[in-house]
Specification:
248 residues; Rossmann fold; Nuclear Transport Factor 2, Chain: A; 2 domains; 7-stranded mixed sheet; 33% helix; 34% strand; binds S-adenosylmethionine
Length: 248
């Protein structure tokens, strides 16, 4: 199944719950990360783009940090609607339904964007390494001089084996979510999401799969620099995600 269909048919309905249920709280945590990584101090004229924004924790954080315009791009209308609701008293926020690969050339003049973020594994939702290279080239063209790109993502190159491939995600009295990983090729892993929801008749299973890219963090750095950006920060965070910042 493709990524957009996976979110439409399963994950969008559970995504905010999966992150703990309170996107404002996630936005507060993400703001701390954005500021720690030096993406703060915008002016009212500053423009930020959040590629694969989902319900918008980073979009909300960037608006609260003072960016004058923050565009959240996503293929899931359900998640964009959640973001629009959360952002109703944040006039800086715009939502854009569409593919993150096309968004920058379609909406931003060359050199007009101050910050691009693509966070929490969204980069790994792209179809292949050619798509990653295309995105990086388009980001490099859209950034203003001194503009910054922030990527956060997992290193999925190390294979988990046996029962370690089954990962608990979240559970409460009404819902249980697990995922199981199948390592298909050196470049991709199939993520099988399994969600049980409690109904009047008992527990009901919902399941769907989608591919994620496996990119070694150091390979990503080489690709970012090949696109003409300079990597200024590259390290794993305490939650196991890598953060890579590049400047124009
Ligand atoms: C793991 S979620 C991350 C959402 C958000 N950035 C966060 O930190 O919670 C990935 C998001 O990217 C979106 N997405 C995946 N591929 C996309 C594409 N090609 N174009 C636009 N959005 C995409 C999904 O719909 C989903 O909302």
């Amino acid at each position: 199944m493709g990524v957009a269909a996976h979110y439409r048919d399963l994950l969008a309905s559970h995504y905010s719950w999966m992150l703990g249920g309170d996107i404002e709280q996630v936005a507060t945590q993400d703001r701390q990360l954005l500021e720690k990584l030096g993406l703060g101090a915008p002016s009212a004229a500053s423009v930020a783009v959040d590629l694969g924004c989902g319900p918008g924790p980073q979009t909300l954080a960037l608006a609260d940090m003072g960016f004058g315009t923050v565009v959240g791009v996503d293929t899931s209308q359900e998640l964009l609607d959640e973001l629009a609701h959360l952002a109703r008293s944040r006039p800086a926020v715009r939502t854009r339904h569409g593919d993150l690969l096309d968004a920058l050339p379609e909406m931003a003049a060359r050199g007009s964007v101050d910050v691009v973020v693509c966070m929490r594994d969204t980069l790994l939702h792209l179809s292949d390494l050619d798509a990653v290279d295309l995105l990086l080239t388009r980001v490099a063209s859209s950034l203003a001089t001194g503009g910054k790109l922030l990527l956060t993502y997992r290193d999925l190159t190390q294979e988990l084996a046996g029962t370690d491939r089954f990962l608990p995600v979240r559970s409460d009295d009404e819902r249980i979510m697990l995922c199981a990983l199948d390592y298909d090729t050196p470049e991709t892993v199939t993520v099988n999401d399994l969600v049980y929801t409690r109904t009047a008749e008992g527990w009901e299973l919902h399941k769907s799969s989608y591919p994620k890219l496996r990119i070694a963090p150091d390979t990503l750095v080489q690709r970012i620099e090949a696109a003409g950006l300079t990597v200024t920060h590259h390290a794993p965070e305490s939650n196991g995600m890598w953060s890579t910042v590049a400047a124009s």
